Structures are given as C-alpha cells and as structure tokens.
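Anyone up for a design puzzle?
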C-alpha cells in the first residue's frame, strides 16, 4: 500500500520528455542557470560515465577534460533545471559504469563510435 502511495506522489515530479541516451554517449547537457532575475542556458558537454537511481531519483554523471583536469558533474534526470540533453556521439561500451576512464589521459579516453543501424537512422 505504501509503495503505491509513493509511486503516485513520485509520478507528479517525473518528466514526460525524458532524454534518450546511454552510457558511453557524448552529450551536451543544457542547464538553466539563474543569475539574479535573469535566466540563461549553460552547456556542459562530455561523456556519460554512469547512470544511477530510478524514478524521480535517477541521476547521470558526465565527465569531461578541462585544461588537462578531469571534471565530473552529476545531473538529476528529471530536474526542471535540465533544458535538454543532445546526444553528439554514441560510444560502444561493455560496462554500465565507466569509472576506468578516470585513470586515462589523451587519446585513450576516447571510446569507439557506435555505428548507426537501419533502425536508428530511419532508413530501410
């Protein structure tokens, strides 16, 4: 009974337009930033190295290299502060968490690109 009540309350805070991306994808996360009374969109682009949680508590972690230093940021998937998530490149991975990328530098950080199939690009 209590699980049903929690699910009903949680359903009101879920987004209908959940972005579709996977671990290993290179994404641009458009975040709404409030500065005083103005609102602007800030971009954070990098590789999705982890997804965790479920329902309204779902998070994803994006990693990028800035000035030779690794920067990771966790985003709530259903947050109204996330304007949109653009998938720039899809990577081929065989793990659900890519924490091993933290130890890598240079070209070894890159992942192999996933080839588009006929279902993905609509042809066929």
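Challenge accepted. My sequence:
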């Amino acid at each position: 009974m209590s699980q049903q009540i929690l699910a009903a309350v949680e359903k009101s805070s879920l987004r209908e337009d959940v972005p579709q991306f996977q671990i290993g994808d290179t994404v641009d996360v458009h975040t709404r930033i409030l500065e005083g009374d103005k609102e602007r969109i800030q971009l954070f682009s990098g590789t999705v190295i982890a997804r965790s949680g479920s329902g309204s508590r779902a998070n994803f972690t994006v990693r990028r290299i800035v000035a030779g230093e690794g920067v990771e940021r966790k985003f709530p998937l259903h947050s109204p502060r996330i304007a949109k998530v653009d998938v720039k490149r899809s990577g081929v991975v065989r793990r659900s968490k890519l924490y091993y990328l933290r130890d890598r530098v240079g070209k070894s950080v890159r992942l192999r690109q996933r080839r588009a199939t006929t279902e993905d690009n609509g042809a066929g």
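A detail worth pointing out: The first strand starts at residue 26 and ends at 35.
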